[in-house]
Amino acid sequence: MRYIQVEPSGALRGSVHIPGSKNSSLALLAAACLADDVVTLEGIPALDDLRQIAGIAQDIGLDMQRLDNGDMRLDPRYIHSATIDPGKASAYRASYYFAGALLAKFGRVTIGFPGGDDFKSRPIDQHVKAFQALGAKVTFQDDYYVVEASELRGADIYFDTITHGATVNSMMAAVRAKGRTNLYHAAVDPEVVDAARFLNQLGARIYGAGTDHIRIEGVPYLNGGTHSVIPDRLVAGSFLMAAGITGGQITVTDIIPEHLGSCIAKLREVGLEIESGDSSVTAYGTGNVKAARIRTAMYPGFATDLQQPMTALLLTAKGKSIVTDKIFPHRFNHVPQLRRMGADIEVRKESAFIKGGRPLAGGWVHATDVRAGTCLVLAGMVADGHTRITGVEHLERGYTDIIGSLRSLGASISLIERKSDAGSRESDCM
Ligand code: EPU
Fold first, then answer.
1. Are residue 27 and residue 75 in the same domain, yes or no?
2. Is residue 213 domain-shared with residue 241, that is, in the same domain?
3. Using a 6 Å cutoff on CB, does residue 183 contact ligand 1?
4. pLDDT per residue over 80-94, tens digit each?
5. Is the pTM of this model over 0.85?
6. Beta strands 13-17 and 213-217, pairing class
7. Domain total of the chain
8. Mutate to test the pocket of ligand 1, among 53, 120, 161 (most ligand atoms within 8 A of CB)
9. What are the pLDDT digits (tens) for 138-180?
10. What is the span of the domain harbouring residue 80?
11. Ligand 1 atom 6: the closest Cα is on which residue?
């Protein structure tokens, strides 16, 4: 059995390097299949999903190696298969990016349905709609789907909703299509811009990424190249919240502060003092957290991924807070766990209603997804006694070394691996 044990930690202090973005990396690794030569990606974090991707890469013939300097080298020249094992595809969410990339390169892909964090409903209809608009036929089977096209042709695609995943996937599918593709109502997330910058570096012609209209002029060939992944704004935001909840002072370094705009604004609103540098942000917890209203939105709005750690922070505010998530209205699996710790919080429809200021008590809780896990870790740092969090694998999917980083800031947190009833082993890092 593996669990994270957290104890009251006092004020966390220090600075922490923020690794490359998980969500951007997952797209870039699949996008590397589109190249016709070797690609080097700098800053890809050591995440658990990489194991799934390595398995997929091996099956299709994408040579993928972590170099001694930490860079990831991908050689797509010998890809011999566009069939992805359903079990591997459904082991994580972003496997759908292989659909766009392999369709564009080979005109056919067979792939399992995406898995990942369970927020009840996570449709892929907008991905499918885009593939069809480009001329592909999509056939659904029990545990996989096939996307095929004798030729992909540019098209005008109007997304019904703003989606980060479908915007990136459509960009990949369209990059080698014949003619011009226009994506309207596109997501403007930094990860979309990062994918476009990477592909353009290889010779793609993508214009307007970062606005809601992206134009793609298809090209027949993509070169190899080198690209550095953007820093993880969601990891950075979580550490700033750790400063708030513990009344400490944390500097997140090697980041792009503009990516954290809405997070910083909300942290100031709840009473944190924030200083921004060129590539760092420092949060000062004042010990006086104010209640607030949070509504998640697509970038540049307040990220759905940060509403869970933010909820932990709002538990310490005096007064009533409301957190509403319309992006993933069921992303509240952390709430029953917080109630077990004594929180006064309840969910109605797509909102969590929080009465802050009630003391929290440690105990056994379960992390059901990566950000729910972050929320429980933060809550554990201000709860009485030991908080023991199972579902460690979810945290490992999103953070390279959350335990090591928090310990370096003074947190009392460990990974416990209990082999049997006979004894347990404590690790310093994951
Ligand atoms: N949507 C559709 N149809 C689609 C695709 C999305 O209706 O075909 C809806 C979703 O249900 C949601 C909204 O569009 O309401 C936005 O979904 P989006 O496509 O942007 O999400 P995603 O690509 O499934 C990525 C991240 C999530 C992050 C969201 C925020 C990856 C692998 N995942 O998911 O990250 O919360 O964007 O938009 O990039 C996490 O890191 O913890 C995480 C879950």
1. yes
2. no
3. no
4. 999 999 999 998 889
5. yes
6. unpaired
7. 2
8. 161
9. 999 988 999 999 999 999 999 999 999 999 999 999 999 999 9
10. 22-228
11. 163
